[in-house]
Design a protein that fits this description.
Radius of gyration: 22 Å
Distance between the termini: 73 Å
Strand content: 35-45%
Helix content: 25-40%
Number of strands: 9
Shape: elongated
Number of helices: 4
Length: 200
C-alpha cells in the first residue's frame, strides 16, 4: 500500500513539475515576444520566404488568449511587390478591366487586411509544421492575377528551395496546414487569368 502511495506521489510530482516548467516557458515567451521582437521576426522571415514587401502596423502575440495555441495578430497588413514587375505580362493575352486592380504607381498589391490574426498550434510548430486551425482576415483586399505566359503575381512565395549554393542553408517555406479561414467586413477579392479569359 505504501509503495502504491509513493509511486502516485512520484507521478504527481513529475506532472506538477512538467506543468510548472510549461507555465514558466509560456510566461517567458509572452514577456520575450514584445512588439519590436515580433516585428523583427516577421521582417526576417518575410525577407527569407517572400520576394516582395510586407508592411504592418501594430503587432501582438498572446500565449494565453487561445491557449494552448499561440495567438498572433497584425494590423494594417499588406503584401506588395514593385509596380513594374509584371508590366510585360500585363500587355500579353486577353485583357480585362479587372487586370489592373491592385496596381499602384510604385507598388502593386497582392493582398492587404485591416487585421490579420491567426491561432498557431504549438506542438506542430516545434515539429517544423505551421498548423493554423483558424485564420481571420478583416476587410481583406486580394488581387490574384495569372498571366498568359504562365506567371502569376502570387508566385513570390518560396514554397520550395531552388538550386542552392554550397554554403547556403536556405530551405523552402515550411509546411503550412490551414483550417478554417474567416473573411469579415466586406471582403474584396479579384481573380484574373489571361490564359482562359477568366475574370472574377
Amino acid at each position: 500500500m505504501n509503495k502504491d502511495r509513493k509511486w502516485w506521489k512520484t507521478v504527481l510530482k513529475v506532472i506538477l513539475w512538467f506543468i510548472g516548467i510549461w507555465a514558466a516557458l509560456l510566461v517567458i515567451l509572452q514577456l520575450t515576444l514584445t512588439e519590436k521582437t515580433l516585428e523583427k521576426l516577421v521582417d526576417r522571415y518575410a525577407a527569407e520566404y517572400i520576394d516582395g514587401d510586407i508592411s504592418f502596423g501594430k503587432a501582438s502575440v498572446s500565449m494565453f488568449k487561445r491557449f494552448p495555441r499561440i495567438f498572433l495578430s497584425l494590423d494594417d497588413f499588406a503584401v506588395t511587390y514593385p509596380a513594374d514587375r509584371f508590366d510585360a505580362q500585363e500587355k500579353m493575352g486577353v485583357q480585362g478591366h479587372l487586370m489592373h486592380h491592385g496596381c499602384g504607381e510604385t507598388a502593386d498589391t497582392l493582398a492587404s487586411f485591416d487585421r490579420f490574426s491567426a491561432s498557431i498550434n504549438v506542438v506542430s510548430l516545434i515539429g517544423g509544421t505551421i498548423r493554423i486551425p483558424h485564420l481571420r482576415l478583416v476587410q481583406p483586399r486580394i488581387f490574384a492575377h495569372s498571366y498568359a505566359d504562365g506567371k502569376a503575381n502570387w508566385n513570390m512565395f518560396h514554397f520550395e528551395s531552388g538550386e542552392e549554393e554550397a554554403d547556403s542553408t536556405s530551405t523552402g517555406l515550411p509546411d503550412i496546414s490551414l483550417g478554417r479561414i474567416s473573411f469579415s467586413r466586406h471582403p474584396h477579392i479579384v481573380y484574373t487569368d489571361s490564359r482562359d479569359t477568366m475574370f472574377a
